[in-house]
Amino acid sequence: MDQKLTMEILLQAPTQIQFHITCALYALLIGPVAIFRIRRDKVHRWLGYSWVVALAMTALSSFFIFGFRIWGPFSPIHLLSVLTFVGLARGVWLIRQGRRIEHARQMQALYFLALGIPGVFTLLPGRMLSEALFPGYAVFGFGLAVVLLGVGIWVWRQFGPLQRAG
What we know:
Elements: H1 3-11, H2 15-35, H3 42-62, H4 76-96, H5 100-122, H6 128-133, H7 138-159
Helix pairs in contact: 2-3, 2-5, 3-4, 4-5, 5-7
């Protein structure tokens, strides 16, 4: 499949899916800079605020996407959206309580759990984003997503989520 056709898949997708993908992509890209940054300064705070908003918008917009239905219009991935809201609220509450180390753990875990796991499911063969990003190689794309998530979690666990929390 030609690259132009794959981008058309995304450009012709419903608005709520385009919005969801845009917010998720922003959260995925800005996340490492916001939550794994060594210095905890104004840049960290502003990027962190924008990351929280992007992740919240990603979770919220998921409730308007019904491609995979199990319980009425919803699927297990919608449970992850609910857990994302809980995790974001907890992360904000922790920093307001001055519990920086727990806040760092919470937000870093959310990066992998709220973006990584749904991202892997999004790249299952046959799904729209899988077809757009890996036309003809959907199994490769899914495998790559699983490996990247696994390596990311392993590195995070190996080197400690708290080393940059101070």
